[in-house]
Design a protein that fits this description.
With 439 residues, the protein is of the alpha/beta class. The chain is 41% helix and 19% strand.
């Protein structure tokens, strides 16, 4: 296979964990990947990149839970910044099950680029996401029958990805089905051209395996607009020319004293299993009581932060978590509703309190290792800590990277709540310890 020239890649992601998810797909192939948060002054992006090796620049708009018009505006503004930075390939990164404002955010990127077509892939086989006949599956279950159907903030009740996108845009969405994908790269190119000629603007591609993704990568290697989840990005570096090696930790002292802080705000069952595994390994788990968090937020933050500092200074892995079992989540939502708060407001309130706890703890300890579980929680913690730039280091498990906040410096794992095996967080702690060492 003849490699094609490697483009300067610009990505707009709708949350911070998704930014790392796609970033590591490039970083593990030697790319220099920098992520900029939603709080970044995008007018200064060219200056912030000046003098720094950067092959992929990612902007997190933190827009998954925003009203659709606000999400559109954020993505369009981020696309402007990527154009000014000189990007050649533009990627609108989404959740791997298309939660959020996918249609409107696709529109925003195409409108800003003056483009009329984009190829979308949601499948992430290594994390159990597959698309067949346009229907999306999560670990073998239809999306509308998976745990995402019960997401308290953004429930997914529709399994057809074409229908999900079409319901959010005035443009037309269509399907490139699995037989065409498996007929080879030339067949995919022809299929995409046919869809475009038929007036389709967003081509949703079926994919069930990594080989399917590789074939799609070969077909779209010179496209200018890509859409969807991160898994396709794992295969594109094998199609493009190779970059020079990159050493992201060179010059940084990341030795840490004390334990690792884990902050968990996700309600996904994967997060619950990961915390249970940590406790079995001797971690100290502290629980943010949802009702107390609504009725006495300052007192709750102060108490948990003090407890966490003591455990971290004693060298223990310390978990600060929300109640993520269904009965407690419902009780918290009920109290929130009595106070006039919608479910998304309750979720963001709890994430904000977790972020305040993390900030207080890290300022009172010498720990330089932080793991967050849940996209909204990860974004809130980064905002509270003033983290606007992270560098992607390497992959711990598929789609789950270690990153670094160079301005602090701090080693991070910012994880989607629905990703990872039960032992993942313990594995991530061990990984960060090896990267940073002990003071």
């Amino acid at each position: 296979m003849n490699r094609v020239p490697r483009p300067f890649v610009g990505v707009v992601a709708d949350d911070i964990t998704g930014s790392g998810d796609i970033g590591v797909m490039f970083a593990k192939h030697g790319y220099a990947v920098r992520i900029f948060s939603a709080e970044t002054d995008l007018a200064t992006l060219p200056e912030r990149l000046a003098g720094k090796r950067t092959d992929v620049v990612i902007i997190d708009t933190d827009s998954r839970l925003d009203p659709a018009d606000l999400a559109y505006a954020k993505v369009r503004k981020a696309t402007v910044a990527l154009r000014r930075a000189g990007c050649e390939l533009f990627w609108k990164k989404t959740c791997s099950v298309f939660r959020g404002n996918v249609g409107r955010e696709f529109d925003a990127m195409l409108d800003e680029l003056g483009a009329d077509f984009g190829t979308a892939v949601a499948a992430f086989p290594k994390n159990g996401r597959q698309t067949s006949c346009g229907l999306h599956y999560v670990h073998g279950k239809l999306l509308a029958e998976s745990e995402f159907a019960k997401d308290p903030v953004h429930p997914m009740k529709e399994s057809s990805l074409v229908a999900v996108v079409q319901g959010q845009t005035g443009r037309r969405a269509g399907l490139l089905a699995l037989p065409e994908v498996r007929a080879g790269a030339d067949a995919i190119r022809q299929g995409l051209q046919r869809l475009k000629a038929d007036g389709i603007h967003y081509a949703i591609c079926d994919a069930e395996t990594q080989d399917d993704l590789l074939t799609i990568a070969e077909a779209v290697a010179e496209e200018k607009v890509l859409l969807g989840s991160s898994a396709l990005a794992e295969e594109l570096p094998g199609v493009w020319t190779m970059p020079d090696s990159f050493e992201p930790l060179a010059g940084f002292d990341l030795a840490s004293r004390g334990g690792t802080l884990v902050v968990a705000g996700s309600v996904m069952p994967q997060t619950r299993a990961q915390i249970e595994t940590l406790e079995a390994h001797g971690a100290q788990a502290l629980t943010l009581d949802g009702v107390a968090a609504l009725t006495d937020p300052d007192g709750t933050v102060a108490r948990l932060a003090t407890e966490a500092v003591a455990h971290l200074n004693a060298g223990r892995t310390t978990v600060v978590r929300t109640e993520n079992w269904p009965e407690a989540v419902e009780a918290t939502r009920k109290v929130g509703a009595e106070r006039g708060m919608a479910p998304v407001e309750v979720s963001r309130h709890l994430s904000g309190l977790l972020a305040r706890i993390a900030d207080g703890v890290l300022h009172r300890t010498a720990s330089r290792r932080l793991i967050t579980l849940g996209g909204d929680t990860s974004a809130a913690v980064c905002r509270q800590l003033g983290i606007t730039e992270t560098v992607v280091l390497d992959e711990i498990e598929p789609g789950l990277p270690a990153t670094m906040a160079p301005d602090l410096p701090l080693l991070l794992v910012l994880k989607s709540g629905s990703f990872g095996k039960p032992e993942f967080v313990q594995k991530a702690i061990d990984h960060l310890e090896r990267l940073g060492g002990q003071a």
